UniProtKB/TrEMBL annotation:
The lineage of its organism: Eukaryota, Metazoa, Ecdysozoa, Arthropoda, Hexapoda. It comes from the Eukaryota. Residues 193-269 form the Tectonic-1-3 domain. This is Tectonic-1-3 domain-containing protein. One of its GO terms (biological process) is cilium assembly. Pfam families: TCTN_DUF1619.
Length: 307
């Protein structure tokens, strides 16, 4: 990603941006439309592309295989320039396009905070068979001045490490968010609605301590259920979405003592919220960490005692 879309709409230098206009990117040689990967039909694989349009927030999720060393190294994201406005672009000398017209992407790597830095490439460890620096979530924040066009673009990434095996599928989450110019708070992440949940948005979970609640920006750390890979084994997770009933099943290979097997099953079932003594669910789609009363405990029967 970004996936260039077919040029079904002409690059019009006479018409200013308006709601729903195509968003254009360039490598200072060619021009293409910005698109994000999406799954098609019943498959979870990233086999399609949805076009990004001006002032329309976009969010997609799909899976890519991680079965070989080559697929690990290929899990990179293209860097590009976003065109501020077709009206401002000079066709005659595209290689001399200035940064106020061909706006470079500023990358931020996010964990507890987001730090601007070069996006690291995926690295395969031959000893452990683990692919490092895989992109888990990617959000592009596009800052604009309405019909006058785009003034800045920032990419916010969360990374993770995963083992490479023949059944491995990696879920990728993509998001495009539009913000008015001047709103430069890079710590602000749109959640799942404001204040209540929007239908189809991920349910947010966190961890409760004695006097506070904390939660991560990455949706991979929110409440989810296991889903099967191509072989039927549990290889991926699917976020619980507000207003969506879901039922999944997958096979899990376990080993160890009875207690260890029980813990493995419990961890697979509950994922990030397996520790019920700490797990809480946000009552709102845009929660605040300090508002303890806005979080509710995850109620569940404790696992039965090991005989």
């Amino acid at each position: 990603w970004p996936n260039p879309s077919p040029p079904s709409i002409v690059f019009d230098t006479e018409t200013p941006f308006r709601d729903g206009s195509p968003v254009w990117i360039t490598d200072n040689v060619t021009i293409s439309r910005l698109g994000v990967p999406v799954s098609i039909g019943h498959s979870t694989l990233c086999h399609g592309t949805v076009e990004v349009t001006y002032l329309t927030d976009t969010e997609t999720s799909c899976t890519k295989p991680l079965t070989t060393k080559a697929e690990c190294h290929a899990s990179t994201e293209a860097q590009f320039f976003i065109i501020s406005s077709p009206h401002s672009y000079n066709f005659t000398q595209p290689q001399d396009c200035t940064e106020d017209v061909c706006i470079p992407l500023h990358n931020y790597i996010c964990s507890d905070a987001c730090i601007e830095r070069t996006l690291p490439k995926p690295v395969f460890n031959d000893t452990t068979n683990i692919c490092h620096n895989l992109i888990d979530t990617l959000e592009y924040k596009i800052y604009h001045n309405g019909s006058r066009g785009i003034v800045d673009v920032k990419g916010f990434y969360t990374l993770r490490n995963l083992s490479v095996n023949r059944d491995q599928l990696v879920r990728k989450r993509y998001k495009v968010t539009y913000l008015w110019a001047g709103n430069s708070d890079q710590q602000v992440f749109r959640r799942s609605g404001s204040p209540g949940y929007d239908r189809g948005k991920p349910v947010i979970s966190g961890k409760r301590s004695l006097k506070a609640v904390t939660y991560n920006f990455s949706t991979s750390d929110w409440i989810s259920v296991g889903v099967a890979g191509g072989s039927g084994y549990c290889r991926d997770r699917y976020n619980l979405l507000f207003g969506e009933n879901i039922r999944t099943q997958c096979s899990l290979t376990v080993k160890g003592t009875c207690k260890q097997i029980q813990q493995q099953i419990w961890q697979q079932m509950l994922g990030p919220v397996a520790n019920l003594s700490e797990a809480v669910i946000s009552s709102y789609g845009d929660p605040k960490e300090g508002e303890v009363e806005a979080w509710v405990p995850l109620l569940s029967a404790e696992p039965p005692p090991v005989p």
